[in-house]
Amino acid sequence: MEVSETIESIRNLIKAARESGKNIGLVPTMGALHVGHISLIEAALKKCDYVVVSIFVNPTQFVPGEDFDQYPRPFENDLDICKKAGVDAVFAPSPEQMYPVENITWVNVTKITEPLCGQFRPGHFQGVTTVCSKLFNIIAPDIAFFGQKDAQQAIVIRRMVADLNMPLEIVVCPTVRESNGLAVSSRNKYLSDQQKKDAANIYKALRECRRMIDTGVKDASEIITEMRNILQQVPSIEIEYISIVDADTLQNIENIEGKVLAAVAVRMDPARLIDNILLDAAK
Ligand code: AMP
Hints:
single chain; alpha/beta; six-stranded parallel beta sheet; 38% helix; globular
């Protein structure tokens, strides 16, 4: 496995892989790799001949006051995980490599970045779309792999790629969960064992949403009330949002029809946790 810290060296590796006829897969990450990331790597290995994992804690997607400095950076362990998984190259640039001068060029997706996490993390998606555009320009992957865990991010990236005619495919992989249903996340490292147990109520609330829709409930506010009740059983959970939105526009819906995204964000000091499920009320 090759490890590149510069744009020049990763480009040379990609060029060589392309010249030998390989198609390129990219798994963008911020490191602190876990089974969720490994599932993306495995999906990439199935579809691509040459798989690159980027590890970059991107400063521009952290809002002031967030955990940029505290974000876990177990680099050597990440490299071991990538090697064992069969990754071909890791691209791990420094912030100076990615942003050598003040960044004054931004990629902005409007509308769908405003609801859900956009309300609570102003500027976050601009950082994500800008860094993903940079990674796509540096690596020129045929396919990039994202997780359903960050549903709004995946929808925003797909839309950016479509709107800007970027020549790659976006594949979104299912959320990997702990046995109690908690979505695996690098930020779960911030939680105590008790908090991890309590955080199972997030997925419990989402399962209740699915159950109610399956039994024909159409009123989104009735479902949200039930979900809120489940989350409020845990005093240490502070709800940021519970939303049921159209899966394409991410606008709130009152009457459930077709494809909907049920999404939850909570604070569980010191972590912020998000989770979601995609549902098709027509089925
Ligand atoms: P991050 O390192 O948190 O920026 O995540 C990198 C990629 O891994 C993103 O596309 C995430 O959506 C994805 N990811 C993170 N956690 C999970 C999970 N539990 N299941 C599936 N994908 C995940």
